[in-house]
Design a protein that fits this description.
By secondary structure, the protein is α/β, with parallel strands linked by helices. The protein has a single domain, classed as TIM Barrel, CATH 3.20.20. It contains 13 helices and 11 strands. The chain has a 7-stranded parallel beta sheet with strand order 1-11-10-9-8-7-6. Strands 2-5 form a two-stranded parallel sheet. Strands 3-4 form a two-stranded antiparallel sheet. The C terminus is likely disordered.
Length: 330
């Protein structure tokens, strides 16, 4: 079991740029030139490399970078019984029966990750929030949804049961840090209730973060950390910060892009802004998810990714006085 616990000065949103070696291997596997076991071995190598890179940079939390999947969160959803990838529209899902799960592959993926972290790191598991699964089913498979779930409450019960079983299996495998994600703009009362019912039933020693828009976060209960794409929420982020302050929860600040050296003063100013609401011991500066411009070379984007990590470690080490001199927030 890991000896560290969030919140951390520097955290990660979860996804890192796909290594070129892994891209090529996945394409070879898709075309039948490589068997899945060979692809799995290459994934293992790249995840080990990622963990070592994050550890050497000084981070206390790691993920597998989403290196096991090329289409998150669809592969997670399609590993549930009753959901398949649409045979024609490959970016959508199709409901084929009521939803259940026996053994989800994400549990085995986590066991590999936690097996290479050691006691000085914690392995974080990223999961799509129940609300994201609900919205995808409503959008992609509305007719089948009506057929298999004429009583919509039965769908909510099945989703809750599926997540409960997966999280219990992760917990039994040693997982103590889960981050749920739903960054869509679909916020309904049903989605909020679905999330909250699950979050409030989780083990008390399981650290739970939620990465979502502010309108979703501000209605969320049962989580310890609220992760926000800060630059995308100009209008409602202050209301959220007040909400987090009142709950005495932790806040994960996620930039919307990989900052460069010239952005450091602006980044410090934004952190200083947050510090008026959130004390430093409950503030995490998060490395954003993989971000590569369409015209950008992989090597350039990768260099930005690792430079962002270096900058985050530098800013986090400056201390509360450097970030917000003389203005306590509590």
């Amino acid at each position: 079991m890991e000896n560290v616990k969030p919140p951390f000065k520097v955290d990660i949103a979860g996804t890192f740029l796909y290594p070129q070696t892994l891209k090529e291997a996945r394409e070879q596997c898709r075309t039948g030139k490589m068997i899945p076991a060979e692809l799995r071995a290459i994934e293992d190598v790249e995840i080990r490399n990622l963990v070592e890179r994050l550890k050497s940079a000084g981070l206390k939390v790691v993920t597998d970078g989403n290196f096991r999947t090329s289409s998150w969160p669809l592969e997670f959803m399609c590993a549930l019984d009753g959901i398949d990838l649409h045979p024609v529209k490959k970016t959508t899902i199709e409901l084929t029966s009521r939803i259940c799960v026996h053994r989800h592959p994400i549990v085995g993926d986590f066991m590999f990750l936690t097996g290479i972290t050691g006691g000085d790191l914690i392995a974080k598991q990223i999961l799509p929030a129940p609300s994201l699964l609900l919205s995808r089913l409503q959008k992609d498979s509305p007719n089948q949804l009506k057929h298999f779930y004429p009583v919509i409450d039965h769908l909510y019960e099945d989703i809750h049961r599926v997540y409960h079983r997966i999280i219990n299996a992760l917990y039994d495998s040693g997982c103590r840090y889960i981050q749920f994600r739903d960054t869509t703009r679909i916020v309904t009362a049903e989605a909020i209730q679905l999330n909250n019912t699950l979050f409030e039933a989780l083990p008390p020693d399981l650290s739970v973060a939620f990465h979502a828009p502010s309108d979703m976060l501000i209605s969320t209960v049962g989580v310890d950390m609220f992760f926000l794409d800060y630059d995308d929420e100009c209008c409602s982020r202050y209301k959220l910060l007040w909400f987090i302050k009142e709950k005495k929860a932790a806040f994960g600040f996620i930039p919307s892009y990989y900052p460069v050296d010239d952005d450091l003063d602006e980044l410090r100013a934004k952190i200083d802004e947050v510090r008026r609401y959130i004390p430093l011991d409950r503030f995490s500066l998060c490395i954003p998810n993989a971000n590569m411009l369409p015209s950008e070379k992989f090597e350039v984007a990768q260099a930005k990714q690792w430079h962002t990590l270096e900058m985050a470690m530098k800013v986090s080490s400056e201390g509360s006085e450097a970030l917000h001199p003389g203005s306590p927030c509590d």
